[in-house]
Amino acid sequence: MLCTVFGKGHATGKNAVTAEDVLEEPSRNEENVDTQNLGLGVEEADHSISNTEEATNTFTRVLGVDLDIAVKRDKINEELRKLSNFSMIERHRALLAIACDHKMTASFFTLKDKEKEDFVNALHRGDL
C-alpha cells in the first residue's frame, strides 16, 4: 500500500491508512480464504508429489538394471576367456552376440562354467 505521510504520523489522501488499518488487514484477508479451493490445491500438490515419486522410483529401477547390465557386459569377455575350448574369433562372436542382448547378458551370468560352454556352442550353431 502506498500512502503519503504528512506531519507527525498522520496519513492523508485517498488511500491513506492508519496503523490500525494495517494491523486489521491480515485478519480481513484471512476471513476471505476459500478453504474449499485450498483443499483442492493441497490434493493436486499431493497428487503431483505422488506422480513424481512414482516416476523417480521407475527411473531408479530402470537405471539400476541398465547399470547392472553394463557391469556384466564389461565382464563377458573375462568370463569367455575362462572357457578354453574357443578360439579368439569364436569368443569375439560370442561376446558380440551376448553383449547386444540384455536378456542374453543377464542369462549368461546365471550359468556355471560348463553351461557357459554349452551356451556359446549353441550360439555358434545358431540354436539361440
Give me the Rg, rounded: 35 Å
N-to-C order of helices and strands: EEHHHHH
Number of strands: 2
SSE-based structural type: mainly alpha
Q: Quick check: average pLDDT?
A: 75
Please summarize the sheet with the most strands. Answer: 2 strands, antiparallel
Strand order of the largest sheet: 1-2
Proportion of residues in extended strands: under 5%
Query: Looking at the structure, what is the overall shape?
Result: rod-shaped
Low-confidence stretches are none
Termini separation? 78 Å
Total number of helical segments?
A: 5
Number of domains: 2
Helix percentage range: over 70%
Structure, explained:
This protein has 128 residues and is mostly helical. It has two domains: 1-33, no CATH class; 34-125, no CATH class. Helix content is 72%, strand content 5%. It has helices spanning 19-31, 35-81, 88-99, 102-108, 113-125, and strands at residues 4-6, 10-12. Strands 1-2 form a two-stranded antiparallel sheet. A hairpin with a 3-residue loop joins β1 and β2 (10-12). α2 (35-81) runs antiparallel to α3 (88-99) and α2 packs across α4 (102-108). The longest helix is centred in the middle third of the chain and has 47 residues, at 35-81. The termini are far apart.
